[in-house]
C-alpha cells in the first residue's frame, strides 16, 4: 500500500464532510403482484397450520413464535464486562451518522466493475457491493408486493457488504427496512441461545431431550419434565432444524444462570451502533428478570429485535470460526487526482466464540435447509444445486399476540439468516419480509435468491 493510502480513521474524517443524505437503495414503485418464480400466494385463514411448512398459508398464528408489538423495549446503557480477548479495542471511526452514504446515487463503473458514488468534492467512493447480486435482488423485491422486504449480504471472512436491498409500501411501519431493527429477531435468536448453551459446557448437543410438541408458545409448565406431555424428542440439531421452542426454553432455563444471556447479547453486538457510514439501527434486546419471559426470549419469543445487516453478521460469525468482522461498505476512495487515498482492510470487530463452538454450530444449522423449516426453499427447491449446501435459521413472528387487537396492520415478520457454501462460506445473508395476512414471498425465498445468484456468478 502506497503512502497515499490512509488508515480508516483518516478516511472517515474526510467522509464526514458533506451533506446529501438519502437512506436505502430501493425506489418505491408500482410492482407486479403476480406470483411467479417459486413465490407462494398465502392466505390468513387462521387454520392453525405452521406457516414454515404450509404451502399457501400466511396466517402467522401457528408459527414459531407470536409476539405483540407492544413488547418493544427501551434499552438502558451499559456494557457487561468481558475478557479483553473477546473485545478488541476497535473504536468507531469519526463518522457523522446523521449523514450516511447516499446509496441511491451509486452507479456502475464499467472499468472497475463496481458501483461507485461521485462526490461533489471530486472524491470517488468505490463500494463493496456486488453489482450483479444487487441488481438481481432489487428486481426480486420489486416483483412482489409486500409491506416491506429487505436483504443484506456480507462476505464472512472480510465483512464486505455484498448487497443492500430494501423496499416498502405505504402500509410499512418503517421507511427503510434494510436499515431497520424494527422486526423481532424471532427464532433467529435461537442461534444466540445455542451458542450460549454450547459455550457453557453444560449441554451435550447430541443428547436427546423430550419436550412438549406445541409451536404456539412457551408456558411455565413447559419448563418442567412431564412424561405425559413431553412427546417430541430431539437433540440440538433437530431442535434447531424444527425450531422447537420448548427445547431451547427449557435448556436455557436450566443451564444458563442469571445474567449469562445478557453477556451473549453483548458479545453478539446487540444494543450497539454499527461502524459503517450507513444509518443502521442498533438491534435492541434486553433479558427480562421474569423466569418465564427469560425462557421465552431464549426460544425466540419477544425481547429482541434485529436488522438484516446484524442477522447476516451473526451467521457470518459462525461461518468465520467465531470472529465477527467489522462490516464495510467502502472498498476504496480515489481523490480528484486519481490517487487511491483509502483501501479497505478486513478487521476483526469482535471475537464472539471459540472456533470449536462455531464448528459445532455449522453442523447444527446445516439441517434447517435439508430437513427443517426452510427445506422447500433450498434442498427441496427444483433445480437447487446439490453441491450448494446452506446453513441457517428461520424465524416467524407476528406483530401482535394471539388475543391482542390493534389498529395497526397485522404483520408477520419472516426471517432467514444463513451462509453458504458450508465447506467454504463466501456469503452470509440476512433477509426479512413483513408479510400481511395474504402474502407472496417470505424471507427464506429472498435469502435463497441471494445465495443462488451469488453461486451462479462466482462458482467455478
- The averaged pLDDT comes out at 83
> Which secondary-structure class do the elements indicate?
alpha+beta
Walk across the major sheet and give the strand order: 1-13-14-15-5-6
Q: Low-confidence stretches at least 5 residues in length (pLDDT < 50)?
A: 1-98
Helix content: 10-25%
- Subunit organisation of the chains: single chain
Number of strands: 15
Strand count, sense and barrel status of the largest sheet are: 6 strands, mixed
CATH topology of the domain at 43-104 and 129-203 and 260-327 and 350-458: Beta-lactamase
Order of helices and strands: HEEEEHEEHEEHHHHHEEEEHEEEH
What shape does the CA trace take?
globular
**CATH class placement of the domain at 43-104 and 129-203 and 260-327 and 350-458:** Alpha Beta
CATH superfamily of the domain at 43-104 and 129-203 and 260-327 and 350-458: DD-peptidase/beta-lactamase superfamily
Radius of gyration: 21 Å
In percent, how much strand structure appears in the residues?
15-25%
Distance between the termini: 30 Å
So how many helices? 10
The name of the CATH architecture of the domain at 43-104 and 129-203 and 260-327 and 350-458 is 3-Layer(aba) Sandwich
Describe this structure in words.
- This protein is an alpha+beta fold and 460 residues long.
- The protein has a domain at 43-104 and 129-203 and 260-327 and 350-458: DD-peptidase/beta-lactamase superfamily (Beta-lactamase).
- Helix content is 23%, strand content 17%.
- It has helices at residues 8-15, 131-143, 190-200, 236-242, 245-255, 260-267, 291-299, 308-319, 355-365, 443-458, and strands at residues 65-66, 107-109, 114-118, 124-127, 148-154, 161-168, 209-211, 232-234, 323-325, 330-334, 340-343, 348-351, 391-398, 412-420, 427-435.
- It has a six-stranded mixed sheet with strand order 1-13-14-15-5-6.
- The two termini are 30 Å apart.
Amino acid at each position: 500500500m502506497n503512502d497515499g493510502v490512509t488508515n480508516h480513521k483518516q478516511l472517515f474524517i474526510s467522509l464526514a464532510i458533506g451533506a446529501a443524505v438519502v437512506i436505502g437503495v430501493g425506489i418505491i414503485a408500482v410492482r407486479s403482484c403476480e406470483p411467479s418464480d417459486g413465490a407462494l400466494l398465502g392466505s390468513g385463514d387462521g387454520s392453525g397450520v405452521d406457516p414454515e411448512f404450509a404451502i399457501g398459508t400466511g396466517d402467522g398464528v401457528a408459527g414459531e413464535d407470536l409476539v405483540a408489538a407492544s413488547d418493544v423495549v427501551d434499552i438502558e446503557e451499559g456494557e457487561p464486562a468481558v475478557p479483553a480477548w473477546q473485545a478488541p479495542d476497535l473504536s468507531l471511526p469519526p463518522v457523522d451518522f446523521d449523514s450516511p452514504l447516499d446509496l441511491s446515487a451509486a452507479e456502475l463503473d464499467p472499468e472497475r466493475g463496481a458501483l461507485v458514488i461521485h462526490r461533489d468534492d471530486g472524491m470517488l467512493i468505490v463500494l463493496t457491493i456486488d453489482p450483479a447480486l444487487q441488481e438481481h435482488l432489487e428486481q426480486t423485491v420489486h416483483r412482489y408486493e409486500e409491506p416491506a422486504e429487505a436483504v443484506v449480504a456480507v462476505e464472512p471472512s472480510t465483512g464486505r457488504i455484498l448487497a443492500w436491498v430494501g423496499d416498502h409500501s405505504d402500509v410499512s411501519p418503517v421507511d427503510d427496512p434494510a436499515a431497520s431493527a424494527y422486526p423481532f429477531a424471532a427464532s433467529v435468536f435461537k442461534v444466540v441461545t445455542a451458542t450460549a448453551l454450547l459455550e457453557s459446557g453444560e449441554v451435550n448437543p447430541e443428547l436427546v431431550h423430550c419436550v412438549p410438541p406445541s409451536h404456539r408458545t412457551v408456558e411455565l409448565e413447559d419448563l418442567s419434565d412431564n412424561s405425559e406431555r413431553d412427546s417430541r424428542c430431539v437433540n440440538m440439531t433437530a431442535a434447531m432444524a424444527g425450531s422447537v421452542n420448548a427445547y431451547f426454553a427449557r435448556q436455557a432455563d436450566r443451564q444458563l444462570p442469571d445474567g449469562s444471556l445478557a453477556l451473549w447479547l453483548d458479545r453478539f453486538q446487540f444494543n450497539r451502533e454499527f461502524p459503517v457510514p450507513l444509518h443502521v439501527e442498533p438491534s435492541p434486546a434486553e433479558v427480562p428478570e421474569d423466569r418465564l419471559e427469560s425462557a421465552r426470549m431464549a426460544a425466540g419469543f419477544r425481547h429482541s429485535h434485529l436488522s438484516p445487516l446484524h442477522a447476516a453478521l451473526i451467521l457470518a460469525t459462525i461461518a468465520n470460526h467465531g470472529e465477527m468482522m467489522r462490516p464495510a461498505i467502502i472498498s476504496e476512495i480515489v481523490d480528484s487526482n486519481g490517487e487511491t487515498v483509502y483501501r479497505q482492510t478486513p478487521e476483526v470487530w469482535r471475537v464472539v466464540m471459540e472456533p470449536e463452538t462455531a464448528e459445532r454450530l455449522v453442523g447444527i444449522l446445516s439441517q434447517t435447509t435439508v430437513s427443517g423449516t426452510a427445506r422447500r426453499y433450498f434442498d427441496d427447491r427444483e433445480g437447487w444445486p446439490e453441491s450448494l449446501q446452506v446453513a441457517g435459521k428461520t424465524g416467524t413472528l407476528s406483530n401482535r399476540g394471539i388475543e391482542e387487537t390493534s389498529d395497526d396492520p397485522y404483520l408477520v415478520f419472516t426471517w432467514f439468516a444463513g451462509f453458504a457454501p458450508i465447506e467454504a462460506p463466501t456469503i452470509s445473508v440476512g433477509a426479512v419480509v413483513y408479510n400481511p395476512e395474504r402474502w407472496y414471498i417470505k424471507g427464506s425465498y429472498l435469502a435463497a435468491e441471494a445465495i443462488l445468484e451469488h453461486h451462479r456468478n462466482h462458482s467455478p
